Amino acid sequence: SQQGEEDPQALSIQEGENATMNCSYKTSINNLQWYRQNSGRGLVHLILIRSNEREKHSGRLRVTLDTSKKSSSLLITASRAADTASYFCASYSGAGSYQLTFGKGTKLSVIP
Amino acid sequence: NAGVTQTPKFQVLKTGQSMTLQCAQDMNHEYMSWYRQDPGMGLRLIHYSVGAGITDQGEVPNGYNVSRSTTEDFPLRLLSAAPSQTSVYFCASSRGPNSPLHFGNGTRLTVT
Fold first, then answer.
1. How far is A92 from chain B (nearest CA, A)?
2. FRET label pair with A53: which of A44, B11, B15, B88, CA 20 to 30 Å apart?
3. Which contiguous run of DSSP H or E holds residue B83?
4. B54: Cβ–Cβ under 8 A, 6 or more apart, which residues?
5. What is the pLDDT of residue A6?
6. Is B5 exposed, middle or buried (0-12, 13-18, 19+ CB in 10 A)?
């Protein structure tokens, strides 16, 4: 069953704008991760935020986590055409878990 | 480092045929897993392994077999292919529980 659900399903923005994607999950988590998938390729890990963290930055990426609302958001600032991809949130539930459960993804299109 | 290598990249099978999807990693990761990705469904876990000789079922294991005789390799076997197994299959590995996954580039399988 899907643990995470991303919103929106698709997002189209102009180059230079910021892109925000949201993720909601159902059960308590150990950490939440975001992945990017370029068309026809495997997923690439972007950033991990632990359940006791509220915000994390990596380059142009900013991730927030609200465990009370069971939600997370991924912000990509100053987007580039190369950011065009699908973005997935994924989470492990419980300590020592090996089962990473993915959402259905947000398809981001950045128009040059 | 090659990372996670999957072969073949593409495969067409007839209903009832069998085949093995190969996956190898050179990062000495204990954990390996297989996911399938279908349109609108995100990624779903098929089987996973936490070390050589140890495997377990994920969310959608029916119709698939796995074994793990070495740390490096984790093949996925389809014993009698069905059209419902048409999908893109991804192999992934990680250092351990709650860790980010490293993905291969996938095998696109069509069953006619």
1. 6
2. A44
3. none
4. B68
5. 83
6. middle
B34 close to B101: Cβ distance less than 8 angstroms: no
* Residue whose tokens read 């996938």: B106
Q: Residue for token digits 């990509």? A: A76
Tokens of B88: 């893109």
Residue B15 has which token pair? 């209903």
| Residue from A3, A23, A52, A100 to probe the interface with B (highest B Cβ count within 10 Å) | A100
Residue A61 structure tokens: 């990426």
Task: Convert the pLDDT of each residue in B48-101 to its tens digit.
Answer: 999 999 999 999 999 999 999 999 999 999 999 999 999 999 999 999 888 999
Written as six digits, the tokens of B78 are 């389809």
Phi, psi of A17 (to 5 degrees): -80, 165
